[in-house]
C-alpha cells in the first residue's frame, strides 16, 4: 500500500459536512482498480457462472470492466475539479490478499470504489463504520492515508471508529439466504420491517451509507448491512442529533441512498416502489417537505451491466454539488427531465460502468467539506420521530 500523500493544499483542509446539498468544496472519489469478486462468506452470495465466477469462486474483476469503470470515475473527477471541487483518491491496495481475525479467515477482500459505505462525515467528524461483511472488515485501511492527512492538517477534525465487530458465526442468521429466497414477497417485507434479516443483534453492525444526513436529523436505514444494535450505537454516538431508524418496503434493502435521497432543504426524492413508513412521511410533511416520487430508471435488472449486484434504482443515486446543481447518470433521461422541471441544473455524466464495483455517484464519493453549519430542518416533532 502506498502511504505517502503530497497535498500542496494541505493547509486549507477542513472537514465539515452536515447534509447532502450544501456547496461542495472537497470530496473523496473511489477507484475500481483491484476490486475482487468476494470469496464466500456468511453475509453474501456471488454466483456469476457466465462470467467465470460460479458460486464458491472468487478473484479479480476482469480488466475490461475495471478499465471502463475507472475511466468513468476519472471523468467524474475532471468534472468536479472544473467546478472548483478539490478531489482526493484512495491509495493502491492489495484486495486479493487473504485476511483474518481470531474468529475467521477470509480468502479475499473487496475494493475501494464505494468509500461512502465505509466513511460517514457528520460535521467535523469522520466516522469509520463497523461494516458487516468479512471481506470488507479491513477496508478502512485503504482510506487511512487520506484520513491521517486530513487529521494532521485540520486542527478541529474529529476522527472516530465504531467498535470493530467480531463477525463470528453468531453475528449471522444461519442459512439465511437459502430460507429467505423461499419466502413470499409479503413474508420478505415482514422480515424487512422487523429487521429480521441476515444480521443478528449479537453486536452493533452498520454501513455508513445507511446514514442519511439532514442537518440535525440523521435517518438510519435498518437493512441487510445495518442492524438494530448498529442504529442504537449511532444514536448514542451522535448525541447532538436526532437519530431515527427507518425501513422501506424493499425486499433487499442495502443502503438508503437509492431509496430516500435529499435534494435540498424542503425536498426529498423517494423511490416509489419502496413504500416508506407512514410515520416517516408524516414527519416530513409536518415540516413542509415535498416528497417527490422518482421517475423510473432507464435500466431493468435484465439490462444492468455485467456482474452488477446493484439495483436499477442507482438512477436516483445522485451527487449534489450545491442546492441547485446535481450530478446524474447521463442515460437516466426521465430522472434528468424530472430534476430539470424541479428547477435543478443537472450535470449528466456516464457512470453505469461503475455499478459492478458497488454503486453509483453517491456511493463512489464521500463529501469531506461542504459549506454551512448544522441546521434544524424539522422543528415540528411528530409521533415516534
Query: Shape, please?
Result: globular
Number of strands: 19
> What proportion strand?
15-25%
| Number of helical regions | 8
Reading side by side through the largest sheet, how are the strands ordered? 4-1-19
Radius of gyration: 20 Å
SSE pattern:
EEEHEEEHEEHEHHEEHEEEHEEEHEE
**Remind me, CATH topology?**
L-arginine/glycine Amidinotransferase, Chain A
Low-confidence stretches: 1-9
Distance between the termini: 44 Å
Determine the mean pLDDT: 95
CATH class: Alpha Beta
**CATH architecture verdict:** 5-stranded Propeller
How many structural domains? 1
Portion of residues within helices: 10-25%
Structural class: alpha/beta
Protein name: Serine/threonine protein kinase
Family: Belongs to the amidinotransferase family.
Keywords: Kinase, Serine/threonine-protein kinase, Transferase
InterPro entries: AmidinoTrfase
Write the layout of secondary structure elements.
Layout: E1 24-29, E2 36-37, E3 59-60, H1 63-82, E4 86-88, E5 99-101, E6 104-106, H2 115-118, E7 119-122, E8 125-128, H3 144-153, E9 158-161, H4 176-180, H5 185-194, E10 211-214, E11 217-221, H6 228-237, E12 242-246, E13 260-264, E14 267-270, H7 278-286, E15 290-293, E16 319-322, E17 325-329, H8 333-341, E18 345-349, E19 365-370
Parallel strand pairs: 1-4, 8-9, 11-12, 14-15, 17-18
Antiparallel strand pairs: 1-19, 2-3, 5-6, 7-8, 10-11, 13-14, 16-17
GO molecular function: protein serine/threonine kinase activity
Keywords: Kinase, Serine/threonine-protein kinase, Transferase
Family: Belongs to the amidinotransferase family.
Amino acid at each position: 500500500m502506498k502511504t505517502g500523500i503530497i497535498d500542496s493544499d494541505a493547509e486549507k483542509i477542513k472537514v465539515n459536512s452536515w447534509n447532502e446539498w450544501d456547496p461542495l468544496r472537497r470530496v473523496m472519489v473511489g477507484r475500481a482498480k483491484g476490486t475482487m469478486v468476494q470469496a464466500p462468506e456468511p453475509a453474501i452470495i456471488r454466483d456469476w457462472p457466465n462470467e467465470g465466477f460460479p458460486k464458491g469462486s472468487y478473484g479479480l474483476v476482469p480488466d475490461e470492466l475495471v478499465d471502463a469503470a475507472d475511466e468513468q470515475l476519472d471523468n467524474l473527477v475532471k468534472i468536479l475539479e472544473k467546478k472548483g471541487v478539490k478531489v482526493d483518491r484512495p491509495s493502491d491496495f492489495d484486495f486479493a490478499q487473504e485476511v483474518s481475525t481470531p474468529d475467521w479467515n477470509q480468502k479475499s477482500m473487496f475494493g475501494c470504489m464505494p468509500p461512502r459505505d465505509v466513511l460517514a462525515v457528520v460535521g467535523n467528524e469522520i466516522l469509520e463504520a463497523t461494516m458487516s461483511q468479512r471481506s470488507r472488515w479491513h477496508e478502512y485501511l485503504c482510506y487511512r492515508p487520506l484520513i491521517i492527512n486530513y487529521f494532521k492538517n485540520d486542527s478541529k477534525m474529529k476522527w472516530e471508529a465504531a467498535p470493530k465487530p467480531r463477525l463470528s458465526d453468531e453475528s449471522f442468521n444461519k442459512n439465511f439466504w437459502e430460507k429467505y429466497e423461499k419466502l413470499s414477497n409479503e413474508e420478505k417485507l415482514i422480515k424487512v420491517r422487523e429487521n429480521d434479516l441476515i444480521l443478528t443483534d449479537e453486536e452493533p453492525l452498520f454501513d455508513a451509507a445507511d446514514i442519511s444526513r439532514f442537518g440535525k436529523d440523521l435517518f438510519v436505514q435498518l437493512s441487510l448491512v445495518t442492524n438494530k444494535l448498529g442504529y442504537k450505537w449511532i444514536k448514542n454516538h451522535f448525541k447532538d442529533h436526532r437519530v431515527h431508524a427507518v425501513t422501506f418496503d424493499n425486499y433487499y434493502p442495502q443502503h438508503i441512498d437509492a431509496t430516500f435521497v435529499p435534494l435540498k432543504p424542503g425536498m426529498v426524492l423517494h423511490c416509489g416502489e419502496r413504500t416508506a413508513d407512514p410515520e416517516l412521511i408524516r414527519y416530513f410533511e409536518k415540516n413542509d417537505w415535498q416528497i417527490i416520487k422518482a421517475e423510473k430508471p432507464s435500466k431493468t435488472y435484465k439490462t444492468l451491466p455485467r456482474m452488477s449486484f446493484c439495483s436499477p434504482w442507482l438512477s436516483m443515486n445522485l451527487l449534489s454539488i450545491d442546492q441547485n446543481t446535481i450530478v446524474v447518470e447521463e442515460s437516466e433521461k426521465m430522472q434528468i427531465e424530472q430534476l430539470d422541471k424541479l428547477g435543478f441544473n443537472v450535470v449528466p455524466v456516464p457512470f453505469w460502468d461503475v455499478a459492478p464495483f458497488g454503486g453509483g455517484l453517491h456511493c463512489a464519493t464521500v463529501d469531506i467539506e461542504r459549506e454551512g453549519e448544522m441546521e434544524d430542518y424539522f422543528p415540528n416533532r411528530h409521533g415516534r420521530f
